[in-house]
């Protein structure tokens, strides 16, 4: 089946297995994303840096607009492997820019303001196109200057290129709005019809606690990023596809699939999105060499895959990785038994978080059984909670002697 093939209904057994896998993946995403404490810490520091820049006496800062960009803004951040720091991205947009400063001068002006703060001065690091604040042991914050892009009708911006000789088009705010619009799309599920036909006198409390993804597109992006990190963990870091490419391809594929198909489960949504991702990579041949293009749809002239054209091995690495994640996701749909599922998930997404999920779920099942709150509902499987649908069958407590 390719990305353009309609989906067919599955047996109850297959559907039950896929819903169980989705439950595990949802819990996995909750573990690999930043905790509420980490998110709040990043938010507090972002606001402090933003206020410091906004309060600068220089006239260019008076009308400056500071905004987050990247994975934290999109809600797709994941914990880096091996204790590495989070990357929090900020954009300082100089809306009062008069055109008399070049990218190097504006970057220098931004750095001077950050140095005026004693705390930031000691952790400030100059990067090719931005300034980095290294909050030790937590995360680093990259602050990039930008100016309005008069040529972009969608409110785009210009940021310095790495050599600070010119401006490059981008549009983080437009990208965020488009991503949020796509993330708000809700797939049509055949299972919704099954739920509607069930006795409405009760409510289902499914186990795992979240049977479905908490925001399907965002969860898919998080799983793509974690699989990529595991896959490229022992290879040259430069070969890893950058997150914005994964996010862009997944978002475009998600919009197409949700508008095209009716699905049996959220697992099938994820599988369809992964299959369709390469369709949104443009390619052509120039002077006998392949050229790759992953467009930022919200502005003209930004190619997220521009480095692939300078380093073709990066394009090859992406397609090799994509074949692997597609194979891994397809394989998950065929597995039966918790041991096989756990082993396959651990290989694809990391043993530590997967083992933690499985352990937590086992403890919850045992606790629910002891409290006589464990049942089996049609098309859903094991459910926990005091309320259950009328067709749910209670599961007896296990005494390990074959009787109660």
Describe the structure.
The protein has 404 residues and is of the alpha+beta class. The protein folds into two domains: 12-34 and 186-393, no CATH class; 36-179, 2-Layer Sandwich (Beta Polymerase, domain 2), CATH 3.30.460. The protein contains 15 helices and 14 strands. It has helices at 12-32, 36-54, 59-62, 71-74, 103-115, 118-121, 172-183, 190-197, 216-231, 243-260, 266-276, 306-310, 312-332, 338-349, 351-370, and strands at residues 64-69, 86-94, 124-126, 131-135, 139-148, 157-160, 167-170, 188-189, 262-263, 282-286, 289-293, 374-377, 381-384, 393-394. The strands form four sheets. Strands 1, 2, 3, 4, 5, 6 and 7 form a seven-stranded mixed sheet that branches. Strands 13-12-14 form a three-stranded antiparallel sheet. It has a two-stranded parallel sheet with strand order 8-9. Strand 3 (124-126) and strand 4 form a beta hairpin.
List its traits.
disordered N terminus; 3-stranded antiparallel sheet; 404 residues; single chain; 14 strands; Beta Polymerase, domain 2
In total, the number of strands is 14
Poorly predicted runs are 1-9, 195-211, 374-404
- Secondary structure class reads alpha+beta
Share in helix: 40-55%
- Tally of contiguous helical segments: 15
Strand content: 15-25%
Q: Tally the structural domains.
A: 2
Provide the fold topology:
Blueprint: H1 12-32, H2 36-54, H3 59-62, E1 64-69, H4 71-74, E2 86-94, H5 103-115, H6 118-121, E3 124-126, E4 131-135, E5 139-148, E6 157-160, E7 167-170, H7 172-183, E8 188-189, H8 190-197, H9 216-231, H10 243-260, E9 262-263, H11 266-276, E10 282-286, E11 289-293, H12 306-310, H13 312-332, H14 338-349, H15 351-370, E12 374-377, E13 381-384, E14 393-394
Parallel strand pairs: 2-5, 8-9
Antiparallel strand pairs: 1-2, 3-4, 4-5, 5-6, 6-7, 10-11, 12-13, 12-14
Helix pairs in contact: 1-9, 1-15, 9-10, 10-11, 11-13, 13-14, 14-15
């Amino acid at each position: 089946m390719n990305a353009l093939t309609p989906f067919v209904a599955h047996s109850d057994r297959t559907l039950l297995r896929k819903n169980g896998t989705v439950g595990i993946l949802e819990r996995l995403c909750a573990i690999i994303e930043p905790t509420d404490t980490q998110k709040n810490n990043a938010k507090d520091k972002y606001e402090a840096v933003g206020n410091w820049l906004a309060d600068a006496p220089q006239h260019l800062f008076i009308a400056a607009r500071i905004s987050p960009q990247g994975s934290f803004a999109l809600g797709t951040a994941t914990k880096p492997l091996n204790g590495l720091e989070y990357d929090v991205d900020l954009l300082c947009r100089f809306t009062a820019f008069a055109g008399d400063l070049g990218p190097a001068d504006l970057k220098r002006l931004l750095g001077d303001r950050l140095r005026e703060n004693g705390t930031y001065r000691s952790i400030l690091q100059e990067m090719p196109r931005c300034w980095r604040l290294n909050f030790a042991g937590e995360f680093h914050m990259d602050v990039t200057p930008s100016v309005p892009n008069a040529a972009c009708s969608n409110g785009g911006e210009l940021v310095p290129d790495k050599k600070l000789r010119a401006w490059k088009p981008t549009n983080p705010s437009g990208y965020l709005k488009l991503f949020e619009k796509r993330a708000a799309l809700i797939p049509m599920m055949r299972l919704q019809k099954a739920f509607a036909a069930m006795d409405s006198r009760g409510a289902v409390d499914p186990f795992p606690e979240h049977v479905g993804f908490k925001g399907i597109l965002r969860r898919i992006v998080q799983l793509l990023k974690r699989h990529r990190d595991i896959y490229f963990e022992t290879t040259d870091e430069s070969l890893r596809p950058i997150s914005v490419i994964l996010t862009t391809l997944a978002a475009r594929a998600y919009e197409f699939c949700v508008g095209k198909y009716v699905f049996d489960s959220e697992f099938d949504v994820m599988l369809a999105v992964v299959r369709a991702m390469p369709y949104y990579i443009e390619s052509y041949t120039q002077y006998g060499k392949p050229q790759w293009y992953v467009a930022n749809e919200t502005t003209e002239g930004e190619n997220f895959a521009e480095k692939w054209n300078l380093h073709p091995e990066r394009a090859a690495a992406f397609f090799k990785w994509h074949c692997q994640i597609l194979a891994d996701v397809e394989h998950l749909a065929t597995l039966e038994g918790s041991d096989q599922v756990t082993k396959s998930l651990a290989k694809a997404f990391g043993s530590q978080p997967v083992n933690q999920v499985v352990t937590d779920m086992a403890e919850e099942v045992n606790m629910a059984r002891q409290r006589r709150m464990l049942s089996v509902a049609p098309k859903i499987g094991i459910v926990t909670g005091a309320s259950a649908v009328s067709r749910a069958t209670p599961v007896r407590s296990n005494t390990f002697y074959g009787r109660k």
